[in-house]
Amino acid sequence: MAAARAGSRPLQPTGRDPRAICEIAAPASSSAQASNADVTRHHPLMVMVPRQQQPLLPSFLYAPPSGATGGREAPPAAVVAGAPSEPPFGKIEMFSPAYYAAGAVGGAAACGFTHAAVTPLDVIKCNIQIDPAKYKSTSSAFGVVMREQGLRGFYRGWAPTFLGYSAQGAFKYGLYEVFKKKYSDLAGPEYAAKYKTLIYLAGSATAEVFADIALCPMEAVKVRVQTQPGYARGLRDGFPKIVRSEGYAGGLFRGLVPLWGRQIPYTMMKFATYENIVEMTYKHLIPTPKDQCSKPLQLVVSFGSGYVAGVFCAAVSHPADNLVSFLNNAKGATVGDAVKNLGLVGLFTRGLPLRILMIGTLTGAQWMIYDSFKVMIGLPTTGGAPAPTTVPMEGQAELKASA
Length: 403
What we know:
Elements: H1 2-6, H2 19-25, H3 33-42, H4 77-80, E1 88-91, H5 97-117, H6 119-130, H7 138-149, H8 158-194, H9 196-227, H10 235-246, H11 248-252, H12 256-285, H13 295-329, H14 335-342, H15 344-349, H16 352-376, H17 393-402
Helix pairs in contact: 5-8, 5-16, 6-7, 8-9, 9-10, 9-12, 12-13, 13-14, 13-16
């Protein structure tokens, strides 16, 4: 810079708008490159403007900054846009440790609070699955619980539910972001864009393996407390009672494999269906590109897409959910015992309508809470088919530093 400054003449007043200098720095076509190069020699400050590049990560994974231009040549004002008060993705750099930690926090809030909120529905569902002779239907089950246990009976097991699903949500959402990025990098931009649904499926399945290890002990306590009213009052006495009588592996983690059988297909369907529904919504139902839609509208899309995804999730994972409830309730029971007791039809249908209602609402609310948290800290919402950014983050950082 010093050598270039020494070899150039001082700028002379021309009477032109000073913004014309920035216009020179962003050539509109290849035919103007020669003249712009000459201007750069006479105005050495122009070399500070970064050249336009395409991002290495496939553009479909995340929304661009609000100033993205949809793949077209950036207008002159785009070079001087990006004020210090409006960083590209808020205060957190994309794909940094802080970004993944934010995903974990958002996932914990999304799963913990929503599962705790639907505890009454979960109590009814589990009892229908365990004792269909006593709890013949959803409406009669509500009446039986109210008569025998009172209003408090609908909230039995809320503490292990909240803690277990908060831990599960942290691993599920946080690691999904990690593995989605990891598998996209391994595949490369071309194949990641071509096989994006496989990226969603693989990333969510891998994340759920770890998430269920965190959930399994609390799930065992929850089911036992909800379906055996005299067994324990809650987490405080239920957890040590299971450990004393059945041990850690035999009591708390006995249902891990069926839990994987329920949760891994559920989560694969949840994330892959959600991502694709959001993309189709912005392509076919909303005429405005995602990055130009208001944040409230984006969150409405998040809830609606999540609800539809939840319906598919409930149907796919319901047989395994029946197995988990049966095994955690009956001491020493096996998968064969559960199938024999429930029957093939009962395995797929017992408690399904209530679970569709519960999981649809649950999944829609989870995605809305998760994306609301991301918006609050300056990150883009999940899913959609955004246009590629034309100025890389590194270049925008240099622009802000030189401003």
